[in-house]
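Worked example 3 (structure in, sequence out).
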């Protein structure tokens, strides 16, 4: 990546946060409940990333997501450690691709514990695919003006004769 002198990079102290130091199986075991628990923080971060189109402007939102994740796993450790470890161990050992299909019994035990102790229900299938409106307190970034280049190649005028493609359309199956 090429940078110029006018690009300001954040200091290392701004980027330093406590990391979520967990294995893949552990993260997969808690992923559904974690997604539900940290939904607001995660949606705020993703909205910032998409709107700003610059990751440097969303550092604080990313820190909030990391803090929420750490808080979630600390609560799981206090409330459902045995059930969670059993489920994560099953995911780790039952298949080479960390599949969940072999661990439905341990998943049920973990889900029940999460519901009873943390009042956090496992989201239904397709929950994270549903469209939602996220309300944010951040101001909307200004819309950048489209760049205008004075030496750009001009477009064809609207009144020019447009002949059909020489060998027909490549999208012939779409014409009906």
């Amino acid at each position: 990546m090429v940078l110029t002198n006018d690009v300001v990079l954040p200091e290392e102290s701004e980027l330093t946060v406590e990391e979520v130091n967990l294995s893949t199986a552990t993260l997969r075991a808690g992923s559904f409940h974690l997604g539900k628990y940290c939904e607001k923080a995660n949606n705020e971060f993703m909205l910032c990333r998409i709107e700003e189109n610059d990751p440097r402007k969303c550092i604080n939102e990313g820190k909030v997501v990391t803090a929420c994740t750490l808080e979630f796993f600390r609560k799981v450790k206090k409330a459902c450690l045995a059930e969670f470890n059993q489920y994560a161990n099953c995911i780790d050992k039952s298949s080479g691709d960390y599949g969940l299909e072999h661990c439905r019994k341990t998943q049920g035990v973990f889900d029940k514990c999460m519901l009873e102790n943390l009042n956090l229900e496992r989201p239904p299938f397709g929950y994270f695919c549903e469209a939602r409106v996220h309300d944010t307190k951040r101001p909307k970034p200004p819309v950048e003006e489209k760049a205008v280049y004075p030496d750009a190649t001009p477009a064809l005028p609207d009144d020019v004769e447009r002949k059909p493609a020489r060998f027909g359309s490549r999208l012939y199956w779409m014409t009906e």
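Notes: The helical segments are 12-15, 24-37, 39-52, 59-94, 104-118. The radius of gyration is 25 Å.
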